[in-house]
Every structure is written in C-alpha cells, then in structure tokens.
Write a structure and sequence with these properties.
One of its GO terms (biological process) is transmembrane transport. The chain has about 210 residues and is mainly alpha-helical. The protein has ten helices and two strands; from the N terminus they run ββαααααααααα. The N terminus is likely disordered.
Length: about 210
C-alpha cells in the first residue's frame, strides 16, 4: 500500500519508519528540557523501533558491537579493583616516596604520567580524587608548589589517549573504525608524551614549582 505526502507516493512501512524516527528525535530533544536519563530514553527508542517493526530482534543483535561490550566487561572491573584495593593510591605514594631523590620538575612530570595512565582505566574524576591529595602532600614534603602539582594532575586526568576505553569517544569509533588497541598506542603514546612535556613546561614557566 502507498501513502501520499504532497506529490510523493510512499509505502506505509516507510511512513511508519519515518514516524518512529521523528518520535525518537523528539524524545531526545526532550531529554535536556525534562532532565531525563538519556540511557532510559535511548532504550525506549529502541523498544519503539522493535514494536513498530522498524527493527527486528536479529538486526538488533547484529548491530551490537560485542567486542566493545566484552572489552568493557574486562576493563571496568580492573578500574574498580584499582580503586577498591588502594593500588592507585599506593602507586602515587611510591612516586611521592621517590620525590626527595629527584628534581622537582621530574616529580611533577611523573605525577602527570601516572595520572594519565590511571585515567585509562578509571574515570577522570576518580583519577583526580585519588591523585590530588597524594600529589599535594608530595609537593609539600619537598617544598614545592602544591598548586602546580594539582594543576598537573587535573590536566593529566583528561588525557586518555592510550586506549579505547579511557574516554567515550575513543570507544565509539573503536568498533566501527576497525581499530585495534595498538592503533591507539601508536598515535596516543607520542601525543601523551608531547602533552606531558608541554604541560609540565607550561606549569613550571607560568606557575612555578
């Protein structure tokens, strides 16, 4: 059967798909205004598409990138373990213990690198919460500028370049782009080193250590 919009004849199935698509767009538009959970809204949109026949269960299953799902299933517990066992804080304290034997700028750089590594497996907020007290205490112990150390940790917590699971956008393109873990390392490692050097140099120059 055909439906008519203006002068264009369309199958009723296409009209139904278009209606569902418009409903989905409208639902997402309301998320911001009504402050609803976007995950719930997205799930409701998927259910509506299945009910309307726009998407069948087999297509839905095939559309899931299971490699990403299992990657998250393995890495998220690792991040939880790092936080829960105190390993992350222990690593920070190890750097702090070595602070008295190293130049201040090297200690600052080490805290940047360590925070950047942690933020690959735990959230940037958790990295900051874990590392700021340790970095500030280490700076105070060696007579350095604690605020500069806090700045380094804060900047480093947003530099998840070494893998697909450190930040959402990295993960979004991991499956569709056909990337491998080593691809992120190949591009991300030089970028991480460059930013760490520039950031530490900038903090040293403009804030002092």
């Amino acid at each position: 059967m055909l439906g008519v919009i203006g002068f264009v004849a369309l199958p009723w199935a296409a009209l139904g798909e278009g209606l569902v698509a418009l409903t989905g767009v409208g639902a997402f538009a309301l998320v911001g205004g009504l402050q609803q959970d976007i995950l719930v809204t997205a799930l409701a949109g998927v259910v509506a598409m299945v009910v309307a026949g726009v998407l069948d269960a087999a297509e839905l299953y095939d559309a899931v990138d299971w490699d990403v799902i299992f990657l998250l299933a393995g890495v998220i517990p690792l991040g939880i373990a790092l936080e829960g066992t105190g390993m992350a804080a222990l690593l920070g304290e190890a750097v702090a213990a070595a602070a008295t034997h190293l130049p201040v700028v090297v200690v600052l750089w080490l805290f940047y690198i360590l925070t950047g590594l942690l933020t690959e497996v735990i959230s940037n907020n958790a990295s900051v919460v874990l590392m700021v007290p340790v970095a500030a205490a280490a700076a105070t112990a060696i007579g350095a500028n604690a605020f500069s150390f806090v700045l380094a940790v804060t900047f480093a917590a947003s530099t998840a370049f070494l893998g697909p699971i450190g930040y959402q956008t990295n993960l979004f393109v991991y499956g569709p782009g056909g990337y491998k873990f080593v691809d992120y390392l190949r591009i991300g490692a030089p970028l991480q080193l460059l930013l760490s050097t520039v950031t530490v140099a900038g903090i040293t120059l403009f804030r002092g250590i």
